[in-house]
Amino acid sequence: MPTFEYAPAPESRAVVDIASSHGLFIGGEFVEATGGKPFKTVNPATEEVLSEVSEATADDVDAAVRAARTAYTRVWSRMSGADRGKYLYRIARIIQERARELAVLETLDNGKPIKESRDVDVPLVAAHFFYHAGWADKLEYASLGSNPRGIGVVGQVIPWNFPLLMLAWKVAPALATGNTVVLKPAETTPLTALAFAEICRQADLPPGVVNIVTGAGATGQAIVDHPGVDKLAFTGSTGVGKMIARSIAGTRKRATLELGGKGANIVFDDAAMDQAIEGIVTGIFFNQGHVCCAGSRLLVQENVVDEVLRRLKRRLGTLRVGDPMDKNTDVGAINSKAQLDRITELAGVGEAEGAERWDSGCDLPTSGYWFRPTVFSGVSQSSRIAQEEIFGPVVSVLTFRTPGEAVAKANNTPYGLSAGIWTEKGSRILWMADQLRAGVVWANTFNKFDPTSPFGGYKESGYGREGGRHGLEAYVSTGQETT
Ligand code: NAD
Ligand code: MG
């Protein structure tokens, strides 16, 4: 199929001013780290170094936890919900005002298309703050139990795939319920979290309510291990989630874990085929497939698999892969060399295990980290590419004959984060949604996010929910309990 030639439509980089080095945000001030080894964050589309970032040591984490404790006892836990809400509304409005700058910064540091950071990530970030601002003075009415209030100091560790959005998922409910925060962004994408620190200052948020410490696994571990942290919220890999669960066992710390996934996107023969093809594309090629709830296993009813594969490949041939700053780009850069290596390795395993490999054959830029949208068909249930999370633009296609077989195959995974169903039959949607062991089930759509809707996993995809009224539960203590 011929593709239209599009002239380049580059977003301007001039809307952001990136400092050459960054400190830590502790107690409302940007401070120097006490001795960690600074590290560089790069633009994965060009390998250009964007900035040098501090590595927070255990001492820095201790200073951040102390600042958060002081802010909690002296200010934040004493403030009325209505007043906390005002700060959250203010933050939400500043995010909207600075939306373009934040979208450009996110795309430069992460590699995702500007179209997505501009139209999905940043608007959802603002929406999360607006939504939780609304709850701050209504916690009594949220069916959380009597006398709902904050727990204390919350330690939060987030991944690189939706850097600012994962920050919003963590910080907005924590603040709305009266907690203070020490947050660590991922080491490859720290810049929007540091911009958020500036936004906290701009909003006159009391010092110490939000503290941002940068660094890698060791810094995250220092947050997990700190005795002054009352609750942990982690989003990332299942491996690290298990380590966190082990390190806090026997302590009084609470935790919510949002981990990996291997979501099944299930297409029946009666599905509206054009919409289903778009849903498959959104399900696995959105954000280069770096999505924990991606529809990375495509289950297609056997009698339509040839048609689905033919249409899907034709559609993938029209995706524009390349410069994330171009407004026409559909698929951007892989976030890091390490992630590219992992995707490449698992794709090799898929081939070695006998699945049929196809990619769109599109041209790729010569510098940066890239992977072509890839389809594996004829994948068996036991294949590693059907079981393990690839976290890249790679879909594994399996077939089924009956709804029962679709459910059995969809549930045959250690994970349970998301699933999708494509069918015109309403009763089948309800039956399937009931049978699928997944935290989110989308019907005739995929990868739809909304702050009012709880999100989270079954089994090794973690525990606890984020978003909606349910998401507040993780951040409150009730009744007579004291901290
Ligand atoms: P990762 O687990 O390696 O890192 C996530 C975060 O944890 C980073 O900030 C990292 O620095 C930190 N970290 C690493 N080791 C740590 C330790 N020992 N103690 C404390 N913190 C530590 O994962 P990643 O490669 O950054 O992200 C990809 C993974 O995250 C995928 O498996 C994906 O499914 C998962 N993910 C899940 C969700 C969800 O909502 N369930 C969302 C996004 C990503
Ligand atoms: Mg980066």
TrEMBL record:
Write one Gene Ontology MF term: oxidoreductase activity, acting on the aldehyde or oxo group of donors, NAD or NADP as acceptor
Q: What Pfam family is a match for this entry?
A: Aldedh
What is stated as this protein's family in its record?
Belongs to the aldehyde dehydrogenase family.
Q: What is this protein called?
A: Aldehyde dehydrogenase family protein
Output the InterPro entries linked to this UniProt entry.
Ald_DH/histidinol_DH, Ald_DH_C, Ald_DH_N, Aldehyde_DH_dom
Keywords of this protein's UniProt record, alphabetized?
A: Oxidoreductase
The organism's place on the tree of life at top rank? Bacteria
The Aldehyde dehydrogenase domain sits at 30-478
